[in-house]
Amino acid sequence: MAVLEAAPPTPTAAHSSAEAGGRYAPRWLRRTGNGALNGWAVFAYLYLFAPIVVIILFSFNNLNGITHPFNYTWRGFTLENWRHPLGKFPELGDAMVESLKIAFLASLIATVMGSLVAIALSRYRFRGGALVNLLLVLPLTTPEICLGSSLLTLFLTRGIELGFVTILIAHVMFCVSFVALTVKARIRGFDWTLEDAAMDLGSPPLRTFRKVTMPLIMPGIIAAFMLSFSLSIDDYIITVFNAGNTVTFPIQIFTEQKIAVPPQIDVLATMILAASFLLIGAGTTLRLVRENRLAAG
Questions:
Q1: Is the pTM above the cut of 0.85?
Q2: Cα separation of 121 and 125, whole Å?
Q3: I need a labelling partner for 296 at 20 to 30 A (CA). Which of 166, 170, 190, 290 fits?
Q4: Are 226 and 215 in contact (CB under 8 A)?
Q5: CA–CA separation, 177 vs 140, rounded Å?
Q6: CB-based contacts of 123, cutoff 8 Å, min separation 6
Q7: DSSP bridge pairs for 70
Q8: Mean of the per-residue pLDDT values for the chain?
Q9: If DSSP codes are grouped into helix, strand and coil, which group holds residue 142?
Q10: Cα(70)–Cα(58) distance, rounded to whole angstroms?
Q11: 22 SS3 class
Q12: Cα 189 to the chain's mean position, in Å?
């Protein structure tokens, strides 16, 4: 006996409307949601950038004639602070130079060490690799006050005089982890067969690394260097434990804020911000030029 198969039910208009209503929200609800999302985004950006705006604004604050200025109240606009960036506080300039030297050297050393560690962990499989990965994360999760005090104990027990060198060693120590993890994230999707192809065509290992590997991972290395530089120049807690008689910019600010907070601090901070924006703009421009050249063949 032939069995007649039941035909699938034809969707009705009411059924389609119910499905559409479950899938799409009403227009007024979508508009409300988009408005709330945009408002929250604006609030988040204001929250993030409000301190930066205050720093730039108060670098133009007029505190002339005040013996011990505290730059907390707006007293009028002036360009005098920018004509004399150090004013009556030349020690701020000396501390800034010291911080720049430490930050540059620490970032350079940490970038070389961390990049080599990241390449080794990503390129090769060896016994103890998982332990090295774990140890890289350890300095990031340890409180800075513990790192600073433990390094101080180490230097004192070894008879090392505190100063420029001990600050440099401390900054390199915590910057290496940031560099290694940043470069590892960059080269995670790196196609290592490109190295094999270059060497199969007769390129020696060093030239292969310089011509093939290095250009491809260079954006990650530059990002790691910039991150290390900003962390080093900003650090106070670890630095104050191991500084000795060396005074960096954060230490100088913390010392002076007990008797004065001059607008020169905001001027120097604004200069650093401007330099950072210039570096970011230059890097973006170079990247766009390179991409356009590659696209043009």
A1: no
A2: 7
A3: 190
A4: no
A5: 7
A6: 192
A7: 261
A8: 85
A9: coil
A10: 11
A11: helix
A12: 21
